[in-house]
């Protein structure tokens, strides 16, 4: 599968906050796959010719890479540092946060509740449907109104060109 953006573009865009190239290569493939699914594969055969439209696609992929990286980092943080709780009914994973610490007998209490100051990534961390919606909304935000090389909107799901009416009985 073709990648729509290279690491140099990504690194120029995110500067010091850029993730390592090895992570970028892995995550950009997944990001391109998401974009292809949402745009019905149009980019494979009609990548935008206009420079601004092409940049919109590249920035979209970069943003998806950033979201995926943040979700991975949050998962690592939960499983490594604080521990985690798996809800057996739903299968969702929630990080344990320290609720209280005692010094006399060295007691630490944890809670699995989400804090009110949690980030958007923390909010979607345990919900795959919410993650998919975040990715989808990001693609829609970046690619709404962006045409492919044929002038058809990338997010348009219908038949891109007018069809001739079918005549019945020779009429």
Write the layout of secondary structure elements.
Elements (H helix, E strand, L loop, with lengths): L6 H8 L6 H18 L3 H5 L4 H32 L1 E3 L6 E3 L1 E6 L4 E5 L8 H5 L3 H16 L28
Antiparallel strand pairs: 1-2, 3-4
Helix pairs in contact: 2-4, 4-6
Number of helices: 6
Q: How much strand?
A: 5-15%
Oligomer: single chain
- CA distance, first residue to last residue: 46 Å
Average predicted confidence as pLDDT: 80
Shape: elongated
Give the radius of gyration: 22 Å
- Main sheet record: 2 strands, antiparallel
Order of helices and strands: HHHHEEEEHH
Category from helices, strands and their pairing: mainly alpha
Identify low-pLDDT runs.
none
Helix % is 40-55%
Tell how many strands the DSSP assignment holds: 4
Strand order in the sheet with the most strands: 1-2
Can you give keywords for this protein?
171 residues, two-stranded antiparallel sheet, 6 helices, mainly alpha
Q: In summary, what is this structure?
A:
The chain is mainly alpha-helical. Helices cover 49% and strands 10% of the residues. The model has no long low-confidence stretch (mean pLDDT 80).
Q: Can you walk me through this structure?
A:
Strand 1 and strand 2 (93-95) form a beta hairpin. The protein contains 6 helices and 4 strands. It has helices spanning 7-14, 21-38, 42-46, 51-82, 120-124, 128-143, and strands at 84-86, 93-95, 97-102, 107-111. Helix 4 (51-82) runs antiparallel to helix 6 (128-143). It has a domain at 7-81 and 125-143. The longest helix has 32 residues, at 51-82. It has a two-stranded antiparallel sheet with strand order 1-2. Strands 3-4 form a two-stranded antiparallel ribbon. With 171 residues, it is mainly alpha-helical. Helix content is 49%, strand content 10%. It is elongated and about 90 Å long.
């Amino acid at each position: 599968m073709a990648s729509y953006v290279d690491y140099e573009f990504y690194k120029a865009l995110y500067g010091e906050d850029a993730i390592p190239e090895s992570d970028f290569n892995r995550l950009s493939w997944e990001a391109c796959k998401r974009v292809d699914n949402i745009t019905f594969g149009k980019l494979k055969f009609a990548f935008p010719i206009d420079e601004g439209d092409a940049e919109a696609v590249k920035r979209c992929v970069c943003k998806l890479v950033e979201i995926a990286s943040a979700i991975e980092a949050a998962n690592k943080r939960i499983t490594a540092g604080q521990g985690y709780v798996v809800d057996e009914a739903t299968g969702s994973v929630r990080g344990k946060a320290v609720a209280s610490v005692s010094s006399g007998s060295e007691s630490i209490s944890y809670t699995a509740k989400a804090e009110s100051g949690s980030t958007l990534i923390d909010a979607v961390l345990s919900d795959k449907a919410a993650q998919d919606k975040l990715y989808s909304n990001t693609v829609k935000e970046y690619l709404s109104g962006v045409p492919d090389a044929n002038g058809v909107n990338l997010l348009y799901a219908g038949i891109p060109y007018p069809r001739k009416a079918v005549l019945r009985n020779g009429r």
